[in-house]
TrEMBL record:
The chain crosses the membrane at residues 62-82, 133-151, 172-191, 203-220, 227-248, 290-313. GO terms for cellular component: membrane. InterPro entries: MFS, MFS_trans_sf. One of its GO terms (molecular function) is transmembrane transporter activity. This is Major facilitator superfamily (MFS) profile domain-containing protein. Keywords: Membrane, Transmembrane, Transmembrane helix, Transport. SUPFAM superfamilies: MFS general substrate transporter. It is found in: Membrane. It comes from Kwoniella mangroviensis CBS 10435. It is a multi-pass membrane protein.
Length: 344
């Protein structure tokens, strides 16, 4: 319950500081840090596995204690020093001058949230609940996590079942998967922020198509080493599919007073797979998890349908965002400030 608002809150606040055509790399940094934490967790659990004490907490409890204490210290610091909006009033949390804050706000699109906006607006939320884009993105999030939990949440169990190594060392096999995900996410997000020709839904569809091929290989592959290699390859294709999602969504947050609700609503749909994917990835399907990845393919087909649905309703806005980004970069090379008077 306490963690639920963290991720959608971060995603929403990034839209208050960055434009849709430059936000992909910033949003990808969150998932990259999540993958990096997976590396730290693997090293931490590997070391804690060698704790053998007759008294005191078990080794797995120490993992919660250590991570929890880090989170408490960081949250206290954030409460006192983390800023709200670029144009927030001067305070101990505002590190920008009024002129710098005004400049950052001026370069944002009209639909970005401002410090002067209303805090909560029920009519705006009711309007958004009628939006086909809200339901399209929510269904995409549902299908995406349903298909990718096998590459994230259940991955340590899956890798352990391969039998490539035994004991605590199996935790270290999670590290290459995280490294591939980090490199792919940063590279593809940088490309997204600099490419103005390719439609973002096309990125999502390309990644989904490649991921289906990889999952099919995992269904029929009988080699543990081959399965592990396919998992590493799948991480790269998953990054191609997911890196474009949140930047694309930020383009269509029409009313800033309901933007946080929209982000949280979509994220909530993405949590639903946690209710049933444990049944999909039961250990009785190990080590190939052929049944599990066959089910994942069905969900990928569903998210591809959602991508086409989103593309249909957001075609003009997505194309306009790329065109504005192209003009800004061309004129920026001439040291000319580019303004805009376009409703998104």
């Amino acid at each position: 319950m306490t963690e639920a608002s963290l991720l959608p809150g971060i995603y929403w606040q990034l839209t208050c500081w960055y434009r849709p055509d430059e936000i992909a790399l910033r949003m990808a940094s969150l998932s990259v840090l999540g993958q990096f934490s997976g590396i730290l967790d693997s090293l931490l659990t590997y070391g804690l596995c060698y704790i053998h004490r007759r008294k005191g907490p078990a080794s797995w409890r120490w993992a919660y204690i250590i991570c929890g204490l880090i989170g408490i210290v960081e949250s206290v610091w954030l409460f006192f020093y983390f800023p709200d909006f670029p144009d927030s009033p001067p305070s101990r949390r505002q590190f920008l001058t009024p002129e710098e804050g005004a400049f950052l706000v001026a370069r944002l699109p009209p639909n970005a949230a401002r410090s002067s906006d209303r805090i909560f607006d029920w009519p705006a939320i009711r309007r958004q609940l009628k939006s086909p884009l809200l339901w399209g993105f929510s269904f995409f999030a549902l299908c995406m996590n349903s298909s990718l939990y096998g590459l994230s949440f259940w991955l340590p169990t899956i890798i352990s079942s391969f039998g490539l190594t035994k004991g605590p060392k199996s935790q270290l096999l999670n590290i290459p998967s995280a490294v591939v995900s980090i490199i792919s996410s940063l590279s593809l997000s940088w490309w997204l922020d600099h490419d103005t020709r390719t439609s973002r839904p096309l990125f999502m569809l390309s990644g989904a198509t490649a991921l289906i091929g990889t999952f099919l290989g995992m269904v029929f592959c009988k080699s543990s080493g081959g399965l592990y290699a396919l998992i590493l390859l799948a991480q790269a294709f998953a990054a191609l599919m997911t890196c474009a999602l949140l930047p694309l969504r930020s383009q269509s947050l029409r009313e800033s007073t309901s933007a946080a609700f929209i982000t949280a609503f979509q994220n909530a749909w993405g949590q639903i797979p946690g209710l049933y994917t444990a049944q999909v990835f039961q250990t009785k399907y190990a080590p190939r998890y052929a049944v599990s990845y066959s089910v994942s393919i069905v969900f990928i087909v569903g998210l591809m349908s959602a991508s086409l649905f989103i593309w249909y309703f957001q075609y003009d806005v997505e194309k306009q965002t790329r065109e504005i980004a192209r003009l800004r970069r061309e004129e920026g090379k001439k040291n000319i400030v580019v303004g805009e008077d376009i409703k998104i």
